[in-house]
Amino acid sequence: MKILGIETSCDETAAAIVEDGRGALSNVIASQVDLHKPYGGIVPEIASREHLLKIIPVIKEAVNNAGIGLKDIDGIAVTYGPGLAGSLLVGVNVAKSLAMSLELPLYGVNHLKGHIYAAWVMGDPPEAKAAFPFVCLVASGGHTELLLMRNYRDFTLLGQTRDDAAGEALDKAARILGLGYPGGPAIQKAADGVCSKEQMPRAWLRGSLDFSFSGVKTAVLNKARNLGLLEGKNRTEAQEKTARELAAAFQESIVDVLVNKTIAAVKKTGAHGVIMGGGVTANLLLRERMIIAADGLPIIVPSPSLSVDNGAMIAAAAYFENIPVGPDGLNLDIVPSLSIA
Ligand code: KG4
Ligand code: ZN
Q: In the chain, is it the N or the C terminus that has fewer CB atoms within a 10 Å radius of its CB?
């Protein structure tokens, strides 16, 4: 069964063809990063206008790259939430039009579940590495959540952020330190090879599996202000070095909290493995530290191109989550604040 997955919830216009939830025949992503860069963050109206321009060429390319025609598609999957309203509307409307004109079933997919099912797209499926249940860490620009996945379609929320998402905190810290946008990759690059003596706080929240990243964000803002580093203008070499040290300490703090809470969730639930998804899980230090902390327990994390927003994860999620319960009607609406469980 070949599903076309469409993703336009944020600043990536993406489409992919995935067969039976596993094995992407194509995966096309048009990033808007350069358009939003001058503003240091996503401008919602620019995002939705760009989706409008890119969505049809991206879908055409995904179908062509898969070596199939529109007539070979068996279903249309699309992110209907969570995300930016204007961005979601573009994907959902195109998906509805295609479903109607090609007389195909339409599947509305939860973007966050997409990040989890990205682990099924390539290579051996998670069940081949460990039996259910899994602890899932979803860390992206808008969400930081820990879930227990007992089986397909069976998720329980264990913890979530009480303020900023991990990616949001990385994006803000990079902006404060004048390192550019998007912040996650910028901080990873700036911190590379830096041995930092700086210390940043960690919010452990008394053993709770919830997260809080606003404190560490304020800490980096205060340090940068005191050191005259704000916005990265006219800095000396020594100040550049200090900015990289603060970036390294910030990354350490975020990674330390994500790893410790994920492993605590495994201990609490007796899960047999960890699935990681979302843009922040592309972070190399996070991947490395999670594997070390797991001490042999399988850590399942897709390649960085499947960790960030993409259409393949949406097609895979539709296969495992939506198909067993049936398609949505053409009255499918967007839900910008959709939750995962
Ligand atoms: O999942 P995603 O592509 O979009 C959302 O659903 O939000 O995640 C985007 C977030 C951004 O905050 C970005 O800075 C972060 O993921 N990110 C990273 C890395 N690559 C992307 N954070 C840390 N390290 C990375 N290598
Ligand atoms: Zn995402």
A: N
Say if ligand 1 is within 6 A of residue 83 CB. no
- pLDDT (0 to 100) of residue 341: 80
| pLDDT of 190 over the 90 cut | yes
Instruction: Give the C-alpha separation, 12 to 14, whole Å.
Output: 6
Mean of pLDDT over the chain: 96
Give the distance (Å) from ligand 2 centre to CA of residue 219: 26
Cβ 29 under 6 angstroms from ligand 1: no
Q: Say if domain 2-119+304-325 classifies as CATH 3.30.420.40.
A: yes
Do the domains at 2-119+304-325 and 130-300 have one common CATH topology? yes
Domain range annotation of the chain: 2-119+304-325, 130-300
Is this model's pTM higher than 0.85 or not? yes
**Ligand 2 geometric centre to CA of 278 (Å):** 5
Q: Spell out the CATH class of 130-300.
A: alpha beta
Beta bridge partners of 169: none
CA-CA distance, 1 to 25, in Å (whole number)? 12
Determine contact, residues 278/167, Cβ cutoff 8 Å.
yes
As a whole number of angstroms, the distance between CA 317 and CA 95 comes to 16
Q: What is the whole-number distance in angstroms between the Cα of residue 71 and the centre of ligand 1? A: 34
DSSP secondary structure code for residue 122 in this structure? S
168: pLDDT confidence band, cut at 50, 70 and 90? very high
Strands 12-19 and 273-277: unpaired
Question: Is the CB of 280 within 6 Å of ligand 1?
Answer: yes
The tokens 């070499």 sit on which residue? 237
Residue-wise pLDDT for 249-277, tens only, equals 999 999 999 999 999 999 999 999 999 99
Q: How far apart are CA 306 and CA 277, in angstroms?
A: 8
Query: How many angstroms separate the CA atoms of 258 and 256, rounded?
Result: 6
For ligand 1, the distance from its centroid to the CA atom of residue 4, given in whole angstroms, is: 23
Nearest CA to ligand 1 atom 13: 184
94: CB partners within 8 A, 6+ apart: 6, 55, 56, 59, 78
Indicate if the pLDDT at residue 232 is higher than 80: no
